[in-house]
Amino acid sequence: MAQDLVFYTNPMSRGRIVRWMLEEIGAPYETKNLNYGAEMKSAAYRAINPMGKVPAIVHHGVVVTEQAAICTYLADAFPAAGLAPAPGDPARGDYYRWLFFTAGPIEQAVVNHSLGVAIPDDKRGMVGYGSYDLALKTLEQALAGRSHLAGSRFSAADLYLASHIQWGLMTGTMPDRPAFRAYSEPLLARPAKVRADGLDNALVAQAP
């Protein structure tokens, strides 16, 4: 039943990442579209996410927030979708490594760079990503000659990283490098991603 899996989002948010993940797993879910401002900061929604931000899911009463956590949770909760290497598969190491490299160093480096936050050379050891250039160089090297991050199959790690690359290239917050496009463009053409974008774009069109 859709009520067993409830998705809180706004189509102009990182909720688009989770929408894609939900479309990949193929399970029924209910969407609750929250407006920025009073609705997202309401007491009712803060009982689900005290941060007052989206996305969030509630699955059989279990609340999960943060995009990487939601993607990882859903991959494990719906194993038939094949979106995570099985326990014991050596590819699971790469799966965790690059999913959380994206959620940590890449996102932090890109956000700080966008905000003009400069890390002094003598303070780089205090930030997990070292520098914007180092984080992106590491990612570029990881993607060289690879179509998937964890073994030979598409996984939640690919979904998460491709979403960040899409946003980074669209906004100019990540450099337009051949390795980034060669990796992400085939993934962004997946049927579930196209469906997810259609659903979110329809919500945008309906907004007052």
The strand order across the widest sheet is 2-1-3-4
The residue-averaged pLDDT reads 96
The main pleated sheet reads as: 4 strands, mixed
Rg estimate, integer Å: 17 Å
List the defining traits of the structure above.
208 residues, alpha+beta, globular
Précis, in short:
This protein has helices spanning 15-25, 43-46, 67-77, 91-114, 132-143, 156-171, 178-188, 191-206, and strands spanning 5-9, 30-33, 56-59, 62-65.
Describe this structure in words.
34% of the residues are buried. The chain has a 4-stranded mixed beta sheet, covered by helices on one side. The mean pLDDT is 96. It is globular. The protein has 8 helices and 4 strands; from the N terminus they run E-H-E-H-E-E-H-H-H-H-H-H. It is α+β, with helices and mostly antiparallel strands and 208 residues long. Strand 3 and strand 4 form a beta hairpin.
